[in-house]
Amino acid sequence: MIQHRRIDKKFALVLVFTICFSFVNKIFAQPNGQALFSSNCASCHAVHKNLTGPALAGVEARWGKKENLHAWIKNSSAYLKTGDPYATALYNQYNKTNMPAFTSLTEQDIDAILAYVNSVPAPGTGDSAAGGGASSAATESDNTLLFGILTLILAVIALVLLQVNSNLRKLSAEKEGEHALEPVPFYRNKAYIAVITVVLFCVGGYLTTTGAIGLGRTPDYQPIQPIYYSHKVHAGTNQISCLYCHGGAQEGKHANIPSINVCMNCHMAVNEYTGKDKLYKEDGTEINGTAEIQKLYKYAGYDPSVNKVWTPNNKATPIEWVKIHSLPDHVYFNHSQHVKAGQVACQTCHGEIQKMDEVKQFADLSMGWCINCHRTTKVQFKDNGFYSIYQKFHEDLKNGKIDSAKGITVEKIGGTECQKCHY
Amino acid sequence: MKKLLIISLFSLTAQFVISCSDIKRERGKNYMPDMVDSRAYETYADHSNLTTKGIKYNALPVPGTVQRGEELPYHLPNDSSGYAQSYNLTSPLPKLSASDMVEAERLYIINCGICHGTALDGNGPLYKGGNGPYAAKPATLVGDPNIEALPEGTIFHVQTYGKNLMGSYASQLNRKQRWMVAQYIKSKQGGAKPAGAAATDSTATAAAPAAGGGTGK
Questions:
Q1: Which CATH number do you get for residue B125?
Q2: What is the CATH number of the domain that holds A86?
Q3: A298 and A387 inside one domain
Q4: Do A411 and A347 fall into the same domain?
Q5: Is residue A272 within 8 Å of residue A289, measured between CB atoms?
Q6: pLDDT tens, position by position, A243-278
Q7: What number is the ipTM of this complex?
Q8: For chains A and B, what is the number of CB pairs under 8 angstroms?
Q9: Which residue of B has its CA nearest to A247?
C-alpha cells in the first residue's frame, strides 16, 4: 500500500513537472516564422512574387503603422470597414478577394512571420549563377557521315592505286621492250562499265524502293510548334501525368490537345522558367523558357499586371499546335481502345516522350508496324472487364489448353482483321 | 579552267553535305492526298474558312444543352454566395465501392496529386516544399483543420470552379468524377463528416448553364 502511494506521488510529481515544462516551453519558445508562413500564408502569398495576394517583401514599409498591419492580418474584412485607403485599394486591386481571418495568430506569431519574410533574400541576388558551366548541348552527331567520308577516301585511294599499278605495268613493259597495247581509258573499259552498271542498278533500286515505301510516312517528323513546349520539363522533370493534359486518351478516339484553361491551371502561378536544365531547340539554339510562357499568356489573353486572376472569359485565342502523329483518313485508330482497354503505355507508340524537349514522331505509323505489334502483344485478360466476353479463351487459359505464359495475342481476338481498322 | 571546275564542284558537295540536317521539320509528300486527308472536317482540322464557304457551324452546343444521361447543369454560381451554399450540397453518389475508390484515387493522382501530393499533404512534385516551379503552397488536404472542416459539396464546388490560384477542373473531370474525387479526399481525411447534411433541391435554379465549366462535358 505504502509503495503504491509512493508511486502515485512520484507520478503526480512527474505530471506536474511535465505540465510546467510544456507551459514554460510554450511561453519561451520562439514561434517558427517559416513554419507559420508555410501553413498559413503560403497558399496565397509568396515573398517576392504576386500570387492570389501581393508579394510580402517590404510589407511593413508599405503599411507603415505596425498596429494596422497586425489588425489587417488578424481580421482583414473587419479592418476594411475602418476605411483605410491603402487597405481599400489593396482589396480592389486583388480582385476583391477577402483574406481569411487569422484570429489564431498571436502578436509574436505575426512578428515571427514578418521576420521570416524579411529574412528571405530576393531571387537573383543570393545564389545566382548556379551551374553556369553545363551548357553543352548534346552534340552527339551520328556516325553515318563519318563512315561515308571514310568510304569515299578509301575508294579514291583504291582508284589511285589502280592507276599507279597500271602505269607501273606499262613502264615495266616498255623497259622490257615489249610494245604494250594502247591502254583503254577506264570509261571505255567494258569490265568497268559492267560493274558500275550493276552497282548503280542495285543502289538506285534500293533507294527507289525505300523512297517509295517511305512516301507518306513521316518518322522523325519534328515540326516547329507555335510555343516551345517541352514535354521533358512537364512530364519528365515535373512528373505531370500524360493524362492530366491528354485525358481524352482514355475516353475517346482522340488523345486531345489541352485547351488553354488546362495550361493556365498551373501557369497562372508558374510565370517563369526556373528549371536547372537550359532549354535548347533541336538545332542547338537556346530557348528562353520565361519568354515562351509569355507567349502562352498572349494566346490566353492574360496580362498579370492588369488582372491577377485568369478566367476563361478572358479573350483567349486557340494555339494552333502542329499535329505530328497523323494517320491517313482510311485508317481508324482509337486511343481509348489502346489506353483503357488494351492498357498500352503511351511510350509504346510515342517513344520516351518524357525525355523529349521537342516532340518527334517515334514510330513510322506504317501498317506493318501496327500489325507486328498486334501479332506480338498479349491481351491483358486479367482483371479487365473489357475482355470478359471471351469466355472460351478464359476457360482455355484456366484449363491450361493455352499456355498462359504465351498468352493470347491481339491477333487471336481478331486484331489483324482488315475491317478492324479499315472500313 | 579544270582547277576552277574542281574547286567549285568540291565546294558544292561540301555545301550539300553541310546543309543536310537530320532534323525533319517538313512533313513530306503523300501518294494520293485525297485518300489521306479527310474530306469530312476532323477534330483539329482548319475550321477557319467555313464561314467564307457559307457554312454556319459553331462547335459549341446550344446554351442550356444537357448531355444525355447527365444531370441538370450545376446551379451554384462562381462567387462567394455560391461557395457558401455549396456547404449544403450533398453528393448524388452512393458510398463508393472498393474498385470505384481505386478509380477515384487514380483520378486524384492524375489531376490533383501533382500539386496536392499523392499523400494529400499539399506537397506535390510541383511545389516540392517550396523548391518546385509552383510558387503558392497547395492546400494541405489531410491534416489542416480548416480544409478538413470543408464538406464534400465545397470540395466539389472548388473542383468545378477553382479557388484562388487553382483553376477549374470541370473540363478534365466530369461531374461524377469530381464527386468521386471529393469522396476520396473526404475518406482520406480524419473521418470528418460534412456538417450541414440538409438535402438541397439541386434542380432549383437549373436554367443557368454552368458558364465557367464551358465545354466541359
A1: 1.10.760.10
A2: 1.10.760.10
A3: no
A4: no
A5: yes
A6: 999 988 998 888 889 988 899 888 888 888 888 888
A7: 0.76
A8: 133
A9: B172
Nearest C-alpha of chain A: how many angstroms from B214? 8
The DSSP call for residue A337 is I
Asked if A239 contacts B125 with a C-beta cutoff of 8 angstroms, the reply is: yes
What is the secondary structure of A142-184 as a DSSP string? -SHHHHHHHHHHHHHHHHHHHHHHHHHHHHHHHHTT--PPPPP
Flag if A269 and B24 touch (Cβ within 8 Å): no
Cβ contact B137–A38 (<8 Å): yes
CB contact under 8 A, B144 and A222: no
Say if residue A322 is in the same domain as residue A228. Answer: yes
Q: Give me the number of domains chain A comprises.
A: 3
Helix axes of A66-74 and A107-119: crossing angle, nearest 10 degrees: 110
Show which of A56, A84, A119 is a domain's final residue.
Answer: A119
Of B24, B109, B136, the CB nearest to A221: B24
A327 and A229 in one domain? yes
Q: How many domains does chain B contain in total? A: 1
DSSP conformation letters of A67-86: HHHHHHHH-HHHHHTTT-HH
H or E element, residue B128: none
Domain that holds residue A398: 379-423
* Whether residues A230 and A353 fall in one domain: yes
Residues A412 and A333 reside in one and the same domain: no
What residues in A contact B39, CB-CB < 8 Å? 329
Selecting from A142, A244, A273 the residue whose C-beta is nearest the C-beta of B114 gives A244
Residue A220 grid cell: 522523325
Quick: pLDDT tens for A212-235.
888 888 888 899 999 999 999 999
* Single pTM value for the model: 0.71
Domain span including residue B159: 82-188
Kindly determine whether residue B136 and residue A283, on different chains, have CB atoms separated by under 8 Å. no
Residue A139 has pLDDT above 50, yes or no: no
Whether A245 and A343 share a structural domain? yes
The pLDDT tens digits of the residues spanning A142-162 come to 678 899 999 999 999 999 998
Least CB–CB distance from A46: residue in B21, B26, B135: B135
A342 inside domain: yes
Distance (Å, whole) CA B177 – CA B183: 10
What contacts A39, CB < 8 A, 6 or more positions away?
A: B140, B144
Same domain as A383, residue A361: no
